[in-house]
Specification:
Layout lengths: L1 H23 L5 H8 L4 H28 L3 H19 L5 H32 L4 H25 L7 H17 L16
Helix pairs in contact: 1-5, 1-6, 1-7, 3-5, 4-5, 4-7
């Protein structure tokens, strides 16, 4: 029982580390790439960072409904990361605003809901293992912050901060997490729609 608890905690640590490493690999350095390498203007650069706000307005709610009704959260987490990674990888080859922006927007549309989905997967797995989520989750979640910082440093130390390689790196991490997500404990779905008003 103790080894099972340690195993699930470790698996969730890996998930959280990768979850935020995907984001950390480009969030801080994208502006330098867009401004210094692609020579985009301030308004254009700002619009890339606005994609997160746009996506956060409705995509987490949409994906939450899908996870509740049709696709278990861990599978939807995997699918979302694979799609986000595909768009991010495609974006790495683009050098004009009109082609790069829509691809980054699509990538972010599928990435942003994964933050809530990964929390759902973690809470479900911890509950199944008989652990108190309020006590067990924070030490696991902190590894997400560590993953974000590690990816940010990796991009900086490799010199990718002004290169599209940061997007490729993010895509590789996303594919890794996408595939890993399919191995995580299954989350229940509720196919019954409450007809009460």
């Amino acid at each position: 029982m103790l080894s099972t608890m340690k195993n699930i905690k470790f698996r969730l640590i890996v998930m959280n580390f990768l979850q935020y490493a995907v984001w950390g690999s480009w969030l801080i350095s994208l502006g330098a790439y867009l401004g210094r390498t692609l020579n985009f203007g301030g308004g254009e650069i700002g619009s890339f960072f606005a994609t997160m706000g746009i996506a956060s307005l409705f995509m987490p709610a949409v994906m939450g409904v899908v996870a509740d009704r049709w696709i278990p959260a861990q599978r939807l987490l995997g699918l979302s990361h694979l799609l986000a990674s595909a768009f991010m990888f495609a974006a790495s080859f683009q050098t004009t605003y009109v082609t790069l922006y829509p691809l980054v927007l699509c990538s972010v549309m599928f990435y942003m809901p994964t933050i809530a989905l990964s929390n759902t997967v973690a809470y479900n797995a911890l509950s199944k293992a008989g652990l108190d989520t309020v006590k067990a989750f924070p030490p696991i979640r902190v590894w997400g912050t560590i993953g974000f910082i590690a990816a940010m440093w990796a991009v900086d130390l490799t010199g990718w901060s002004e290169s599209s390689m940061q997007m490729v790196f993010s895509a590789v991490l996303g594919v890794t997490l996408g595939l890993y997500s399919f191995t995580l404990p299954s989350c229940p779905i509720n196919r019954h729609v409450d007809s009460k008003s």
